[in-house]
Amino acid sequence: KERAAILDKVEKEQREYTEQRRSLAEIQRRNEGKTAEHFRASVRTTIRGFRDMMKSQMAWVAGYGLMFGAMNFFKTSLMSVITVQHEFARAMRTARSETTKTSGLLAEYMNVGVSSMIKFGQKSEMVGEVLYHLGSAGLYAHESLGALNSTMRLIIGTEADVGETTKMIAGIYNNFSQQILSTEGAMGKFKYINDVIVATFRDHQVEIKELRDGLKHLSAMGKESNLTFTEQVGVLATLNDHLIKSGIAGRSVQTMLSKISKTPLAFAKAFDIKINPLMPMNLIDILTQVNKNISKGAMSVQEVGNVFDRLGLRGAKTFITLVKYVDE
Fold first, then answer.
1. Rounded to whole angstroms, how far apart are CA atoms 128 and 136?
2. Considering all CA atoms of the chain, what is the largest pairwise distance in Å, rounded to the nearest integer?
3. How many CB atoms lie within 10 A of CB 19?
4. Tell me: the pLDDT tens digits for 209-232?
5. Are 214 and 247 in contact (CB under 8 A)?
């Protein structure tokens, strides 16, 4: 019996083995010449296979997304560096430098410029534009770099035009730097200029553009009349407060000063004030003397206008306004 049982078991295992071989041979025959894509297609016909396929596809997409994202970030970073270098190289070409080599100057521009970008949160185009116009005004490289941060603060705080405002700042520096004392050199002088303009913008009814247009007409004649930079800005701000605006304010003061300088003795006699024709005209002193005469009742505002008419002078309204507010 035991022997018969063993023989039955062996025969059964042989039959199973023969069946498995036949099945494998059939599978091999059916799949002969098929690619991996055929097997993936068959896998997709089951729920589990579809799930596995989706996971595989999502991983593939995510991998490519990370790869292309890294490549795009690298490209953007590279272009950003190139743009920064281009902007500062453009600005550097307009600046004057007596000692620094080109490579050293570019490194200095990059260092100060990038620091300003970070400090004010602005792009290289804006910082480079400021440096470009400062250099175009004939400033040396150290002066342009010294002016950068205070000029950026002015432009951002007042939302003024970058190019025109920077040109105005450079022009003021070129014309009045000898009057301004600072222990910080050019940087301190530019800081003073920009601080005065910011305070004027804050405390008076005057826009940066109006102040710029006024200074275009007044600055040259104002210097001849011993008006400092601060006094010229104060004169224009006062006139703008009383609706004598923009270039009109500058031209009216310029015309008035020109007329007075041609007939100083007749003007002094008409207003009962003292003017030394041998000395440069001092507008603030003239305004102060006339103000005192009006305050003590020796002359009325109406009489001031009449004197201007009699002497053939223009700008009576401007003169009266400045006389009334000279102490401010």
1. 12
2. 156
3. 10
4. 888 888 888 888 888 788 889 888
5. yes
